[in-house]
Every structure is written in structure tokens, then in C-alpha cells.
Amino acid sequence: MKIDLKNKSHIFIILTVCVLCFMSAMIALSPYTRGPLGEDSDKDGINDKDDNCPPVYNPDQSDVDNDGTGDECDACTDTDGDGYGNPGFEENTCPDDNCPTTPNSNQTDTDNDNIGDVCDTCPNDPQNDDDKDGVCGGVDNCPSEYNPGQTDSDADGIGDACEKPPIANFTYSPLYPIRGAIIQFWDNTTKGGGVLQNWRWTFGDNTSSIEQHPKHSYMNTGVYTVQFNVTDINGKTSRITKNGPSIGKVRIEYSYNFKATDPDGNQIYYSIDWGDNTSKLNLGPYNSSYEANGKHSWGTTGRYIIKVKSRDAYNAESDYTSITVLIPFFHSIF
Predict the structure, then answer these.
(1) Fold assignment, 254-327
(2) HSE of 61 in the Cβ direction (CA atoms, 13 Å)?
(3) What pLDDT sits at residue 323?
(4) What is the pLDDT of residues 233-265, one digit of tens each?
(5) 20 to 30 A Cα–Cα from 144, which one of 128, 134, 190, 246?
(6) Segment 290-313, tens digit of pLDDT
(7) Is 236 within 8 Å of 194 (Cβ atoms)?
(8) Residue 230: strand, helix, or coil
(9) Domain map of the chain by residue range?
(10) Is residue 131 within 8 Å of residue 144, measured between CB atoms?
(11) Could you give the CA distance from residue 248 to residue 172 in angstroms, rounded to a whole number?
(12) Closest CA to 185 of 205, 213, 204, 208
């Protein structure tokens, strides 16, 4: 074969051009090409060549499973790589993983609670351990409250943490005793989850009692506050305090407190009728929930009904509230 070297420069040029053409064709046909340098197809501020999901706006470039494909484009966002996708990803075409943090290709779920056994702290108990106290709900004596000790003082199958407390209350008789008279106090507590066990009364005159239904008498005039505490076998306690003038005298001034709350937060005025045909006392304005004070004395012995109502700055009025006072006898606002 004879080669004409005089044409070699032309051959080189032709070959060079052809090689360049071939490379251009390869670039144009490459499936990995994401567009010209600097192009941002989805307008998310990230060039296509660097974008892990070029056709979908995803400026955060979220890629939970770190597979190089952004979550917005990933047909199976699968953190643990077991072939089941993390729940909550709309693009997933693979089934949801019942334990997305731990590989479990068999997806075993013995108690059918949609939590895979490898992730389930109570794999045989669909109630699980909602209160995180280490005791599965099916055997927890108080599944809604953290109680790892499972204390059940009255052995009724309900943990102390879930037992209802009692609601303390009391009454007394006679309703209007004279000074020095014996007053019978009665425990009217509503029982909660356990049997009542302890009672404590303080009568406001430096005396007390631990009886359930004590008797007491007041020998001096004054204002007394009765406090009653009750505890049940589960250790649940309740307390109630009732107060007001007790034994009164003629022409002695007594002090009364009044408090109302306006739902709109408006200022409040009080109108007080002392029950002895004297002029009414008007107080205010006071801020909502502020405790106002009024004083009064009665000139003769008798039974008096004090009536109080409140109104706001826009003349919206409450109903009357009343209490009864016997002068010089015992009274309470109970």
C-alpha cells in the first residue's frame, strides 16, 4: 500500500473534526447530562448539575436516606435500606416500612399494631407502653400515667397514680347556733378511688380535731375560718376551707370582701344591700377579679340577708348573691 504523505495534514484535520463530532454526540446523548452549565430547571437556586432533584423545586435538597436522589424525586426513600420506604413520603412507590430506622425485610408485626417487632418495646402487646414507664399497657395498672413502681395501696387493680382523689366537703348543725353552743360538724366528702382514712379539722380558734364528725363550740366573738382535710388509703388528699363572720354583736362593725370576674376584663362595680333597710353601699370601679371590701354594723339583733350584685362599665349585671347574718348569733357563708 502506498501512502501519500503530502495529504497527511488534511487527514489529521479530518480526523480531528470527526473526533470532535463524535464527542459532541456522546455529550448530547449522555443520560447524566442535566443541562448547560449554570441552568436551574426547577428555579430552586441550585444548578441542575448539583441539584439532587433537578425537575422539582427542592431548595433544602433533603435526602433522608442519603442515596444521592432528593426525597422529592426518590421513588423509595428508605433510610434503613431494607426495601421498605419511610412513611410520609408521597413519592414512594415501595410499601411503607413498619420500622424505618432498623432493617427488617420480613416486616414482622406480631401484635398487629403497625410497629415492627424489631422496633416495638412491647411486641406482643398492641397497647404498647404509652406512658413510657417500662410496663406494657396490657399489664400496666395505670397505662395513662408514668408509674414504674405500679403502686396499688388498696390492691384494687388500679394504680395509685390513676386513682381519683376524694372531694372534701362538710356541713354543720345547728345552722345558726348561739355563742357557746355545741356545733356538730359532718364530713360530707365524696369518696374517690379509695376508702377514706384520715381527717383533720382546724376551727380557726387554735383548736383542731382528727375525728370524722367532730363537735365544737366558739366562746368568743370574731371571724373564724374552718379548714377540713381528708386523705384516703391511696394517699390522695383533698381540702376545703369555708370562712365568714361567726358570732356577731350589735353595733360592732364587720368587714366583708367581694370579688367578681368579668369575662371581658372590664372594670366592676358592686351594689350591696345590708338587709336592714339602710342605704345601699356602692363600690367601684375595680379591676376584674380584684377583691373589694365593705364594712357594716347592725343596730339591733336579728336575722339579716346581705345581697350583693356586680355590674361592669357597660351596665351588664350579675345575679344577686346572698348570705345570712344573725346578730348576735353564729353565721357562716358555707
Answers:
(1) Immunoglobulin-like (2.60.40)
(2) 10
(3) 84
(4) 999 999 999 864 355 667 778 888 888 998 889
(5) 190
(6) 999 999 888 877 778 899 999 998
(7) yes
(8) strand
(9) 127-160, 170-246, 254-327
(10) yes
(11) 18
(12) 213
Query: DSSP label at 31?
Result: T
**Could you give the CA distance from residue 104 to residue 97 in angstroms, rounded to a whole number?**
8
- CB contact at 8 A, 216 and 224: no
Polymer length in residues for the chain: 334
Question: Distance (Å, rounded) from C-alpha 138 to C-alpha 158?
Answer: 13
Phi then psi for residue 291, to 5 deg, are -90, 110
Does the pLDDT of residue 185 top 60, yes or no? yes
Q: What is the pLDDT of residue 26?
A: 43
In this chain, the answer to whether the domains covering 170-246 and 254-327 adopt an identical fold is yes
Q: Which fold has domain 170-246?
A: Immunoglobulin-like (2.60.40)
Does the structure show a pLDDT above 60 at 27?
A: no
Distance separating alpha carbons of residues 285 and 8, to the nearest angstrom: 111
Task: Quote the radius of gyration of the chain (alpha carbons, Å).
Answer: 42
The sign of the CA dihedral 35, 41, 43, 48 is negative
* Long-range contacts of 210-217, Cβ-Cβ distance < 8 Å, separation of 24 or more: 212/187, 213/184, 213/185, 213/186, 213/187, 214/185, 215/182, 215/183, 215/184, 215/185, 216/182, 216/183, 216/185, 217/177, 217/180, 217/181, 217/182, 217/183
**What is the tens place of the pLDDT at every residue in 320-332?**
988 887 776 444 4
Phi and psi dihedrals of 11, rounded to 5?
-65, -40
Burial grade of 139 (CB within 10 A; 0-12, 13-18, 19 or more): exposed
What cell was used for 333? Answer: 357563708
